[in-house]
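Box 3.1 A note on notation
Throughout this textbook, protein chains are presented in two layers. The first layer is the amino acid sequence; the second is a token string describing backbone geometry. Keep the layers aligned when reading.
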Amino acid sequence: MSQLQIGPHTVEPPVVLAPMAGITNAPFRTLCREFAATAGSPRPAAPTTAAPGSGGAARSRPEPHRGLFVSEMITTRALVERDAKTLRLIRFQDGERPRSLQLYGVDPDTVGRAVRMIVDEDLADHVDLNFGCPVPKVTRRGGGSALPYKRPLLRAILRAAVGNAGSLPVTMKMRTGIDDDHLTYLDAGRIAAEEGVAAIALHGRTAQQHYGGTADWSAIARLKEAVSEVPVLGNGDVFSAEDAVRMVRETGCDGVVVGRGCLGRPWLFADLVGAFTGGGAPARPTLKEVAAVMVRHAELLGLWLGDEARGVIDFRKHVAWYTKGFAVGSTLRQRMAMASSLAELEEHLAALDLDQPWPVGAEGPRGRTTGSRRVVLPDGWLRDPYDAAVPSDGAESDVSGG
């Protein structure tokens, strides 16, 4: 298996960058896409000619679909109300194809209007719907991973999205359920297939698990059996290219979605391309090579935000992920995480032993590892799974989508 079909878009190999709030903006997507285009190399491809986020009009120079790189999650209400921050987040780089935009909404009417706006204004080539967020401030209002429990409401949202999408493919991402006593993924998958979604991604954890424990890959296999007519993508605990290949072998899924595994490692997409196409061994960059990527990442953020200092400040959260496992020292790591200019960041990087090889400690899980916690739900939410009432406006939040 080497390719995935999402409507008219062929994705080869079948790997997807998961939307992550504050992470999968245009600069980070640029890095991941460049590494995917140069599989096997510890360095990204040559810089593109335009700054990330400068628009998506250059149809004459489409890049090969070596992976699918999805935007940060966007709330449908903020989009239809033309919130300024939201409109900036949905800008794509010249040459980004397909332009994949993830939406999150709880009201079928608002979701339908948002998708229609995307079609009418040519804002994206693919729409993904998020039903996986486990954050309490979302689930307590019936949103995120709580919503698929209400089967008629889920169907209404999917119908509104697909019905307004025209030729744009609509996909969805979800979790296995609220908890082990309230699993929803099989019913949700069947509803999605009936409503015409182009693919379904399943994170093999319940909302209760958050990001703790081990993802249940067997649920991905069961979903694939239940909705064999629709591509099923697996998500959860893919921290290496070997993990991705093993997930496909064990579950029969049609592709993999990678989130936390690429934090501080955009070259993981080169590894993934290589693993699925036989194109070379995994990248194992030295600290010097990692440092060069760090500077480029900060530079791209500055271009995107229109201010070098803002770009470096936004980059600070990436420092610990990039330097994971290397002998950096807490003092220098802290200084890098407080840098306010490219010169300051480069000065701190120059003080490191840049000849360090890729460390064993850089492998394995990264990012959030929060364990099991009680899922906060609206009063009486579990009483009737066939209630189609729309949650309140407060259920829409611009937090990461799980």
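Confidence is low (pLDDT under 50) at residues 40-64. The CA atoms of residues 141 and 395 lie 5 Å apart.
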